[in-house]
Amino acid sequence: MPLPPPPTPPVSPWQRLYGAAHRARRTYWRSRAARLPRPVVSVGNLCWGGSGKTPLTAALARHLSGRGLAVAILSRGYRSRGDGVRLVSAGHPDRPEAHPRLGPAEAGDEPVLLAAEASEAAVLVCPDRAAAGRHAMAQLEPPPDLFLLDDGFSHVRLARDLDLLAFPAADPFGGGRLAPGGRLREPLASAAEADAVLLTGDPERIAPEDGRALARALEPFGFRGEGFVAPIHPLPAETEDGAALAAGTGVLLVSGVARPRGVRRAAVAVGLTVLAELSFGDHHTYPAASLQKIARRFRESGAAAVATTAKDRVKLAGRLDLPLATIPVACEPEAGFFTWLDRWLDNRLDRIPSPPAEAP
C-alpha cells in the first residue's frame, strides 16, 4: 500500500498555539534535561497510541542483549498505582532469585509485557525516568551498559543520545492535527528532533522502500535522519499453557488497545474464526464489570476460547474462569536498521566509562 502524502500544516490559531507550546517546552528542557552515565536510546511516537512502540522496544532489547549488553528499559508505568522507582524485572531469566515481577496494577501493562518478552533486560518503572536510571546504576548487577526509554520521545526531562520514532502504517501522520481535534500528540515538526523513523504495523501495508519514503515525506517538517520499516507480524495463537490454538477455532476476541481493527486482522491472519468481539479503551484495566461482560458474551457467542493480545493477557490471566488464548506479535525491523544501529553503538559504546572498581 503506497504511503499517503503528509498533510499540509494546520492553519487554525489553536493548532499553531499548541505547536508553539511544544517547541517552547523542548527548547526549555534542551539545556536542563538530566543525563545518565550510560547512553539512552528513546523509542517514541507522535500519534496517540497504536504505533507499535512496545513490540519495537522488545525487539531492540533482544537485539542489544544478544550483543552481550546489559540493557535496562525505563518506563513511566502508565496507569500504574505504585509510587517511586519500581523494579519490574532485573533481567537474568536464568536466575529467578534476581528476577522479581510486579503485576500490571503496580507497574502498568506495557512494562510487565516487556519484562516477559525481553526477559534478558531489566525493566524499571517511574514517572521520573532519570531517577529510575540512577536506581538501576546503583542496584543492578551488572549495571546497565545502555538504557532504552520506552515511550520516551515526549519525556524531554531526560537527555537521550538516540531518538527513534515509530509511525503506524495504518495512520502514519495522524491527520496532521494535534489534540483535541486531531490524533497527534506532538506536531510533525517535532520529527526534526529524531535520528531515525520506522514505519510499523501490518506487513501487508508496508513495502521495503516505505521507510525511505517516510523519511522523505518528513523532510519538509525538518527531519534529516534515516527511515526504515519495522513490520509487526502476528504469531500463532497460544493457550495459557503455551500450546498452539488450532486454526479454525471459534473465539471471542477481546482487546483494550488503540487500534482494535489490527487485532481482528491478526486473529484472521493466524486462522482463528472470530465469532464475537469486545473492544475496550486503550490500557483498559478490566474491572469486575468488564470481566462479567466478557463472560456473558463468551456464553452467548458459543466460542471455544477468549482470544486477546499479549498486552491484555497480562491483565486478564488468572481473572477469567474461561479458556484464554493470546495472539502474540513480533516486530521485525529490516536488517538495514540493525546495521545502522550497530554502527552507532560501536561508535558510542567506546565512550562508556567503566564502572568504578570496588574498594578492596
Mean pLDDT across all residues, rounded?
A: 90
* Fraction of residues in helix: 25-40%
Q: Over the alpha carbons, how many angstroms does the gyration radius reach?
A: 21 Å
Span from first to last CA?
A: 63 Å
Spatial order of the strands in the main sheet?
Answer: 3-4-2-5-1-6-7-8-14
What is CATH's topology name of the largest domain? Rossmann fold
Give the helix tally. 10
Give the strand content. 15-25%
Q: Sheet bearing the most strands, described? A: 9 strands, mixed
Would you write up a description of this structure?
The structure is a single chain. This protein has 360 residues and is α/β, with parallel strands linked by helices. Helix content is 31%, strand content 20%. Strands 3-4-2-5-1-6-7-8-14 form a nine-stranded mixed beta sheet, sandwiched between helices. A five-stranded mixed beta sheet has the order 9-13-12-10-11, with helices on both faces. Helix 2 (53-66) packs parallel to helix 4 (109-117) and helix 4 (109-117) crosses helix 9 (310-316). The chain has ten helices and 14 strands. It folds into two domains: 17-232 and 332-349, 3-Layer(aba) Sandwich (Rossmann fold); 238-327, 3-Layer(aba) Sandwich (Rossmann fold). It starts with 12 loop residues before the first helix and ends in an 11-residue tail after the last helix.
